Amino acid sequence: MWRRQVTDAVLDRLLSKDEPEDDEPRRLDLRLLVAAGVAWGLVLAGLRMPALWVAVMAVGCLCVTGICVWGERRSLATGFDHFTATPRPLKWTWRTRTYRRDAIYPRLVAVGALGGAVSALCLCATAGHLAVRSAGPIGELSQTSAIVRVEAVVTSDPRAVAAGVGGAQRLVITTVSVRQVVARGAVSTTTTPVLVLGDERWLEVHWHQRISFTGRLKPAEAGDDVAAILTARGAPTVLAGAGPLLGAIEGLRADTRQATSSLPADPRGLVPALVIGDTSAMPQELNDDMRATGMSHLNAVSGSNVTLVLMSVIWLSGWLRIRGRWRLIFAGAALVLFVLLCRPQPSVIRAAAMGAVGLLGVSVARRAAGPPALAAAVVVLLIYDPWLAASYGFALSTLATAGLLFFARPWADWFARFLPSRLRRLADAVAIPVAAQAFCAPVIVLLQGSVSLIGLPANVLAAPLVAPATLAGVITVVVAGFSTSVAAVPAWLAGLPAWGIAWVAHAAARVPMGSLPWVPGTVGALLLAALVLLLLLSGPWLARAALRRPWLAGGLALVIAAVWTPMPSLGWPPPGWVYVACDVGQGDGGALATSSGHAVVVDAGPEPGPMAACLDRLGIQVVDALVLTHFHADHVGGIDGVFAGRTVRAVYVTPVEPGGQQSGGDEPSDEPLVHQVSAAHRLTPQPLKTGDTLTFTGLQATVVWPSRVLHAGSEQNNASIVLDVHSRGLRIVLTGDIEKEAAAAALRELRKAPDGTHVDVLKVPHHGSANQDPDFEHELQATIGVISVGADNDYGHPTAKTLDLLRDSGTAVVRTDRGGDIAVVSRDGHALIARP
Asked: Could you list the residue ranges that cross the membrane (predicted)?
């Protein structure tokens, strides 16, 4: 019965016309939402096309609208009859699965016409944006890597994305809108967004300042929200400030930080982040843990953040006895102030729009207005900034808001039935994160490659603390504008629940097996979406069955958990492990321990699954650095597995770009994959070269190769990064796929080391291929030689010649194809081997 009712409601509202609200107040109008979804997809496709082709697509959509209207014969006499007239009821027969054609056809025509019109509107706006962006000289100059002098306005806060290498300064990124460019003796004016890469001096730049600087242009990827990438040379010169209004806003942000300065580190950073999106004081560990547990929407300007702020403002207006339409005006003014405080960037405006719509989702009286409002917000935002169509943040905000609109209120009512009367207000706090997480899960899988098992419980535990922290935080911001010392009182009131939120994030991030490995990529996202849809449709039946037979339901849940949860090997990882070579098949992937739950990962194997499973077994939650020795698929193809359910702080790659000579059957480069995955996680790969050092807790790695391009042998293999690692009394040399030419060059660098050339552990080059330099193995005299290789591989690795060479050098050989993962353990300065 329930399935018949659900299907009736979905089909009827998807294809129906407007009906009186009091006839079916619980029905939701989805027509405009369907049209907005179609427009979104077309805009996403259009971002990679020239403006002219996008305009042609817009004309095509208008033609679709015209055909839909013209094709319905009754519309010839009554105009847009099927958009306005009340049709005969749509009848659905479950047993025969038949529809009344005369009822469905006009509704499909109406949806098609509306979708065409909305899509044409969005595509026209996209074509205009693309035309304006391509009008300036930036695109042409970037194709030739020209050095330019620009004047620009800063459009985002600068942020450091990776630690420096070998004592070098950190890489800092920001976006600017170029207003004037000087290149090749010509001066041009433009309004073009550009991504800037700079050093630490760029951290002193503030939002909306007008600056001048010099740099080298490079083209951006097709479809990016910037027209080019500009690598700055030196520090920028500030030409003008942000103006009096924006200066006052910056002063209020500073006052808020001052008011919270007496709080402990975690709440001191979290309260401003929660209320006004100011993450400048967020501890890095808290930021990483919140990202790993799916709580990062609380420390950034998101739709849920805006919803909570608006709910706090509405509560405050009731306390101030503001009534009627004045309460709406009060909330609108607060929303404008919030956007100004958080900076009116596209992501902030998107969050404000979605937050306002999300407020409808938790409202009983206005719930029916939610889907059309969400659709209108999507359309307006796509017109304002078409590049939001390619933004994961935009997709997550939209899906989370849809979850609130469709399920937050019904689920809250259902949860409330099982709570004592005094605790029923907690039902909303539970239903909201559950609904948002359910809808966002397929997109999160695209980003992480795994399904978080701890994210939902963590958000549910933190949910009751968010509202009081936000409310007290809003009061802190208001009072801080008058007195920062007085504002310290509500700041402490906000700090207590904020400390609880931080505690939940830290505790959840340390739960073992907090994520479930999943099929990566689009296939995994579609599979999870189908599973979520199945659970939503069968949820009422499952709930009733569980209540009727709780013991059976509990037993079934235990069986599912036993089958799906990966069981760690007993005693794995072994205490004191320093390096683990992961069994990733025919490829390389390994981890160097830094601290509890942290590691430096060197190479990622050919597939995401084995690499993710290996790091899960080791309990790695934070990757301090991901070093990809070179761009062959057997070393970088599993990069998604490194990011799956983990925080990656930096990505390092070989400085030798693929290309040139490809002798020896050299394989294609997967460099685009590395940049694509890194960009999706807001990281920029940094090159490593001879002499650079990486320093982390208990570990120092020196780069001994590459320093130049070798054209002999495989150019890419010989471009592999070679690391000389010192950790916990052991010396380990990791060699990638270097061949004899690069091995000879690396050996010359290793001879310069003060502790000589002897090493404890050697990761044998190129899976033990025959292309070795005998002097390299003989002179290093490694105690242990680790070979990462696939069983029964087609290359014959490792070769008998290489095994004999290692044996003659006094090196004990261990292989991943015989026993799986290999752990190197430090005992009193000696290297020991442990296996699962």
From this structure: 28-45, 51-70, 300-320, 326-343, 390-408, 429-449, 461-482, 489-509, 521-543, 550-567
Q: Are residues 744 and 759 located together in one domain of the fold? A: yes
Task: Read off the CATH number of the domain in which 695 is found.
Answer: 3.60.15.10
Contact assessment for residue 267 and residue 492, using Cβ atoms and an 8 Å cutoff: no
824 close to 784: Cβ distance less than 8 angstroms: yes
Q: How confident is the model at residue 364 (pLDDT cuts 50, 70, 90)?
A: very low
Burial (CB < 10 A; 0-12, 13-18, 19+), residue 557, is exposed
SS (H, E, C) 545-592: HHHHCHHHHHHHHHHHHHHHCCCCCCCCCCCCEEEEECCCCCCCEEEE
Q: Which of 533, 564, 595 represents a domain boundary (last residue)?
A: 564
Q: For residue 720, is it left (φ>0), alpha (ψ between -120 and 50) or beta? A: beta
d(CA 191, CA 131): 12
Same domain, 364 and 493: yes
Q: What does the alpha-carbon distance between residue 577 and residue 833 come to, in Å, rounded to a whole number? A: 9
- Find out whether 625 and 830 touch, Cβ atoms under 8 Å: no
Q: What is the length of the chain?
A: 836
Q: Which residues contact 265 (CB under 8 A, 6 or more apart)?
A: 283, 286
Q: Residues 119, 38: contact at Cβ < 8 Å?
A: yes
Which one, of 773, 762, 777, lies nearest residue 807 by Cα? 777
Q: Where are the alpha helices (DSSP H) in 238-301?
A: 244-259, 265-276, 284-292
DSSP per-residue letters across 357-400: HHHHHT-STTGGGHHHHHHHHHHHHHHH-GGGGG-HHHHHHHHH
Q: Is the pLDDT of residue 654 over 60?
A: yes
Q: In the prediction, which pLDDT does 198 show?
A: 84
Q: Residue 2's pLDDT band (boundaries 50, 70, 90)?
A: very low
Q: Whole-angstrom Cα distance, residue 239 to residue 235?
A: 13
pLDDT of 628 reads: 94
Residue 151's CATH number: 2.40.50.140
196 token code pair: 């800037």
pLDDT digits (tens, 9 = 90+) for 332-341: 787 887 787 7
Same domain (yes/no): 693, 722? yes
Q: How large a percentage of the chain has pLDDT more than 70? A: 82
Least confident of 106-110, 229-233, 557-561: 557-561
Q: Are residues 644 and 754 in the same domain?
A: yes
Report pLDDT digits (tens) over 565-590.
Answer: 555 444 678 888 999 999 998 899 99
Between CA 366 and CA 369 the distance in angstroms is: 5
Structure tokens at 63: 């033609």
Q: How confident is the model at residue 562 (pLDDT cuts 50, 70, 90)?
A: low
pLDDT at 77 over 50: no
Peptide bond into 706 cis (omega under 30): yes
Whether 571 is covered by a domain: the verdict is: no
Residues 436 and 410 in one domain: yes
- Domain around 549: 525-564
As given in the structure block, the two tokens for residue 466 are 């968010």
Instruction: In whole angstroms, give the CA distance from residue 240 to residue 212.
Output: 10
569, part of any domain: no
Rounded distance between C-alpha atoms, residue 342 and residue 657, angstroms = 39
**pLDDT attached to residue 352:** 78
Burial class (CB within 10 angstroms; exposed 0-12, middle 13-18, buried 19+) of 468:
middle
Instruction: Give the H/E segment covering residue 528.
Output: helix 521-548
Same domain, 418 and 485: yes
Task: Indicate left, alpha or beta for 300 from its phi (over 0: left) and psi (-120 to 50: alpha).
Answer: beta
Q: How many domains does the chain have?
A: 5
Looking at the structure, do residues 326 and 460 belong to the same domain, yes or no? yes
* Two structure tokens written together for 31: 């027509």
Q: Which residue has tokens 């095509």? A: 60
